[in-house]
Structure formats: C-alpha cells, structure tokens
Amino acid sequence: MTRIKLTVDGMAVSDDVEPRTLLVHYLREQLGKTGTVVGCDTSNCGACTVHLDGQSVKSCNVLAVQADGGEITTIEGLADTVPDRADGQLHPVQEAFRECHGLQCGYCTPGMIMASVDLLNRNPHPTEQEIREGLEGNLCRCTGYHNIVRAVQYAAEGEQP
Ligand code: FES
Ligand code: FES
After folding, report:
1. Over the stretch 73-87, which tens digit does the pLDDT of each residue have?
2. 112 Cβ below 6 A of ligand 1
3. Ligand 1 center from residue 138 Cα (angstroms)
4. Which of these, 9, 5, 67, lies nearest to 35 by C-alpha position?
5. Candidates 3.10.20.30, 3.30.2420.10, 2.40.50.140, 3.40.605.10; CATH matching 2-78
6. Which pLDDT tens digit goes with each residue over 123-135?
C-alpha cells in the first residue's frame, strides 16, 4: 500500500491505496464520489472525466498514486468553484446543460460537463467545430450531441437556447 495525500473537491484527504488503484476507483469506492462514473474502463468514453490540477483527465486512465499531491475537482465539487456562489447555485456549465437539455439518460453528463469546463477555460469562445473537436474524447451513447454542443455555446455566449 502507498499513502497518498490530495485535495478532492476542496477537502484534504489522505489514504492508503494499492499502487494499481485507478483514480476513478479511488474516488468512487474510497471517497464515495459516485458522481464520477465508469462507462468503459478503457479510456474511450470520457464518462470518468475529472479535473486534476485544473485540467480534465480521464480518471480511469490515471493511477491514484499519480494524483498524489494534486488537486481534484469532480462533478460533485464543481459548483463550489464558483466565486461567491449562492446556496444551491449550479456552475454556469451545469446550468447551460440544464437550460439546453444537454442530456438524455445523463450517464455521460458528468464527464461531458467537466470536459466542457476545461474546454471553455482554454477557449472561452469556441466555434461549433472547436466544441465538437474539444469534446471528441467524450462519447454520448444517447447521441445527444446536438444539445450538448448548444449547451456549451450557451455557456460560452449566454445565448438563449
Ligand atoms: S470510463 Fe474512463 S474513459 Fe470510459
Ligand atoms: S445522455 Fe445518455 S449517454 Fe449521453
């Protein structure tokens, strides 16, 4: 076992993990962060996307020990990153997905939103093509891509859906 220390959704945590433990399994099974989901386990679908030190990563493709010392944000802590957040207020990208109905079954949604936040951090005003390319590592089995792209545009521009 290896001891790791990291910050997850603003909380300092310290745990013993096996060196082979995947970050997604650590988050879900040891920390109970089940908002981060597993869609494939083969780094194809993006459902497990979280932020590690501000950048989106597929947490099934990262070992927990590789995140040692890092700062993780999951979908569960995303809204808390909004400065001066009012009680119950969503992150603007969560709000955009809600407004534009950017989800169907919702399984891909945590990863889509985390990837979209990272995309918008790097490119606050992406074109439709840039959004599609930026989210190409995230798959939606319900094929709800049209509204997902609209949601990212809505978040970027504040446009009405
Ligand atoms: S579960 Fe990580 S990419 Fe699919
Ligand atoms: S909304 Fe069902 S997988 Fe994307």
Report:
1. 999 999 999 999 898
2. no
3. 9
4. 9
5. 3.10.20.30
6. 999 999 999 999 9
